[in-house]
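Technical annex B. To support the medicinal chemistry partners, we prepared a structural model of the target in complex with alpha-D-ribofuranose, based solely on the information shown next.
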Amino acid sequence: MRVLNIGSLNLDYVYAVDHIILPGETEATGEMHIYLGGKGINQSMALAKAGVEVYHGGMIGADGQPFLDACMEYGVNAKHIQIIEEKTGHTIIQVDRNAQNSILLYGGANQCLTEAFVDQVLADFSAGDILLLQNEVNLLPYIVDRAYEKGMQIALNPSPYNEKLDAVDMSKISIFLVNEVEGGQIAGTSDPQAILKTMLEQYPHARIVLTLGKDGAVYGDAHETHFQPIFPVKAVDTTAAGDTFTGYFLAGLSEGMSIPDTLRMSAKASSIAVTRPGAVPSIPLRSEVMEALRNS
Ligand code: RIB
């Protein structure tokens, strides 16, 4: 099964800080690194590293060549990544001594998608293919409507959650991958069990994956529910942990793995990602994940 991911590509400017800066405060930082990131490309990389045939659609500026190189290196098909006359999206990320982060996002080229571009990308895909989306590019409602017309299965990670998602017809989504905050916004409740129950009532044909940080993850659909605890590790940077989980979850699903095995593989993959700095470079290969699972 092929996965098309239309999503963001960001240059992440990552600063090590003692604590996340407060309003009015000036804090000198420790190390600073520039990593490849963006929820979109992180998830494409996770899919590719997990062994899935993945195509990334998106836009970058002239400074975005390193993304094309990384796609080549890890096997993400980049034929639908277009270089335009706009800056590549970027973020300013603070990572504190407890590995927590805070992210300031500049959309740049990620916000320049056009309907013509989307039509051109989708023309290469059909029913039977999965479309994966996050909320860091423009035109989500249009992309969802066109992909649904084609009979594609649509997976949505509605992150970061904001009012732009109100225009998306969520009844067209087959797979939701949400954290507690995003699930809470969709379901209108904050209790994890209630989020799952309400979302399944709202979208009875969907599969729901609800990640709960250190409290693990739960899965629900019309027939089954499962819980997966985390694999405890010493985290250094939690950036892209959720993206790694998403990519590995879709990989397991596309291979027809059981849900419990898929959840276990995804949790292990993200537990490895948080032990490494950065977004794209932190995502483990499938061989590392399987080896780690054998040893746990
Ligand atoms: O999910 C992590 C990603 O969120 C980072 O790589 C950053 O670019 C932001 O998009």
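Notes passed to the chemistry partners:
Residues 8, 10, 12, 37-39, 42, 91, 103, 105, 136, 239-240, 242-243, 279 surround alpha-D-ribofuranose (CB under 6 Å).
The first strand starts at residue 2 and ends at 6.
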